[in-house]
Design brief:
It contains 18 helices and 15 strands. The strands form four sheets. Strands 1, 4, 5, 6, 7 and 8 form a six-stranded mixed β-sheet that branches. Strands 12-13-15-14 form a four-stranded antiparallel β-sheet. By secondary structure, the protein is α+β, with helices and mostly antiparallel strands.
């Protein structure tokens, strides 16, 4: 049964705070745990999670705000679960952060927090509703409003995050999937296929490949192809509905193919990045970026970037398979980002985020995309497309010609002056083409599409910005490092897409809180300095007055 936790609002006469000295209270008030309690824990909406619990009268649930708050604390300090519970039980500041102000009150058990996370994931699988991301969105919306953070200018970046899975080779993966299928067979079928699989089932997949020479790998995979084919054709009717067989079937279809009634091995060059990386994470994909390979996902974050902001906050998080392009990520996120922050008008990205579809959506949302660079071959001769108020296009070349474009059936065409082109020192490198028509054959032509117009607009947008706003995007890379602080050797501590989404949501909440706490601490420190200075000035003035009064009285 769901019951809202509001006990932290009640004043405890015998609470910990009443036992502290003045010095301890000062440290307490300036601690990040106190900021956590005031700006985060007390703002968690427990009602969103009531759907996870029964409507019938029964034992009340563990306080949801304590469970969610504890998960955020774990990511804030990059703790293990063991470190989290040690602090929840014996650290009075940690206990205060989740609203426990008495030493006599016990915290929930480890089983409670694991069961809670499993319920949230199961609810997402069943309904598609992401409760943890809702916590992030609600907290961030309140924080943006409370501290007056402008969201009109934002920046975004993507990053690779490996799933917490074993790094299987192709042969080891095939054997591992085979072993798991064999273990799932019932008592009647296991003896039937034990002779076929005896060489594999007598050891682990790692032990089996340990003795295999590199030159023998193709033969081993060919042998496995026959084993896979026989198993698939004989047991699919009985085990097709099981999860283990569905994984086996996927691997069978990805690595092998039947040609002329004969099973063949798919060549390594024909395997795509979306094949199964591990039976423990079916959504993980493969990607190689800047000589670094990763099996897992791609995270994407957006944050505020207006130079007038006191500090900036992360506003949006997304996790996709790592073989999805940056442009596709932005294409799928921009509408939701605009809905969450309606005043967004300027979004800073790197060169990988541009595409015709993104341009269309940006125009639809009235958002200007500012790119630090444009992917593609750099033109030897610069062409600039300018649009007039009458929706006409004028093209300027680097040598000084400025020509009005003509509309064709599909694109636009520019006819350059042949005499000026003939004297141009850049004509050999120019992208214009010689006219092959019936008239004016000596003229040079240049064609451009709507896609090219939008690309030029993106290039010009950055050039028109003030100099201090042209390098705004670079700072988002520091935010990426903050969000990835719990990622070790390129791998997160979790596997599966939804678990990683929750992981990044909790970490982003923690990053935002850290920035809020830093701002408040500096603000309070500044106020104390000003108050101290005023007091010193008052003392000096009073001393001078007393001194003057004494002189007058003596005279």
């Amino acid at each position: 049964m769901f019951k809202k936790n509001e006990t932290y609002k009640q004043y405890n006469l015998f609470g910990v705070t009443n036992m502290l000295s003045k010095k301890q209270v000062k440290i307490w008030d300036n601690s990040i745990e106190n900021s956590f309690f005031e700006n985060l824990f007390s703002k968690i909406d427990e009602n969103n999670f009531s759907i996870l619990y029964s409507d019938k009268k029964s034992r009340p649930n563990v306080p949801v705000n304590q469970l969610v708050g504890s998960l955020i604390l774990k990511h804030l300090f990059n703790w293990t679960y063991d470190e989290l519970f040690r602090n929840l039980n014996f650290n009075i500041l940690t206990r205060h952060a989740i609203g426990i102000n008495s030493l006599q009150d016990d915290v929930f058990s480890e089983a409670s927090i694991f069961n809670f996370q499993n319920r949230v994931i199961e609810y997402f699988v069943d309904t598609g509703k992401d409760l943890m991301t809702e916590v992030f969105d609600n907290l961030t919306t309140n924080q943006l409003k409370k501290f007056g953070i402008k969201t009109d200018i934002q920046r975004g970046d993507s990053f690779l995050v490996g799933s917490n899975i074993f790094d299987y080779s192709r042969l080891q993966l095939l054997i591992e999937v085979l072993l798991r299928l064999f273990r799932s067979l019932d008592q009647e079928d296991m003896p039937i296929y034990s002779s076929l699989l005896d060489s594999y089932t007598s050891q682990t997949s790692g032990q089996y490949i340990y003795r295999i020479q590199r030159e023998d790998l193709p033969k081993e995979i060919e042998r496995l192809a026959k084993v896979y084919h026989k198993l698939f054709t004989t047991i699919q009717g009985k085990y097709r509905e099981t999860e283990v067989f569905s994984i086996f079937e996927r691997v069978y279809n990805e690595h092998f193919i039947v040609l002329s009634k004969k099973i063949e091995v798919v060549s390594t060059s024909n395997l795509n990045s979306g094949i199964l990386m591990s039976p423990d994470d079916q959504e993980a994909t493969f990607r190689k970026k800047s000589r670094t390979s990763s099996k897992g996902y791609c995270g994407h974050i957006s944050e505020t970037a207006n130079p007038k902001n006191k500090f900036n906050l992360i506003t949006d998080i997304e996790v996709v398979p790592n073989n999805v392009s940056d442009a596709k990520i932005l294409e799928n996120r921009i509408l939701e980002m605009k809905e969450k922050t309606p005043d967004l008008v300027e979004y800073h990205t790197d060169g990988g985020y541009g595409s015709p579809r993104v341009d269309e959506l940006m125009e639809e949302c009235c958002v200007k995309q500012i790119q630090t660079a444009i992917i593609g071959r750099k033109a030897h001769v610069k062409m600039v497309i300018n649009e007039t108020a009458d929706n006409e296009y004028w093209v300027s070349c680097e040598f000084g010609q400025k020509i009005k474009a003509e509309k064709t059936m599909r694109n636009w065409r520019v006819v350059f002056d042949k005499e000026k082109c003939n004297t141009c020192p850049l004509q050999e490198k120019c992208a214009t083409k010689k006219n092959t028509g019936k008239t004016n054959k000596s003229n040079r032509l240049w064609y451009f599409s709507l896609e090219k117009i939008r690309l030029h607009k993106r290039l010009q947008l950055k050039e028109k910005l003030p100099e201090e706003r042209q390098t705004i995007r670079a700072n988002v890379e520091a935010t990426v490092k903050e969000v990835k602080r719990g990622v070790k050797d390129g791998k997160a501590r979790v596997r599966n897409k939804i678990s990683l989404k929750y992981y990044l949501s909790m970490t982003s909440i923690a990053v935002n809180l850290t920035r809020i706490h830093k701002y408040l601490t500096q603000k309070n420190s500044g106020l104390l300095k000003k108050a101290f200075c005023r007091k010193i000035i008052e003392l000096k003035v009073n001393l001078n007055r007393n001194y003057v009064t004494q002189i007058i009285s003596v005279a």
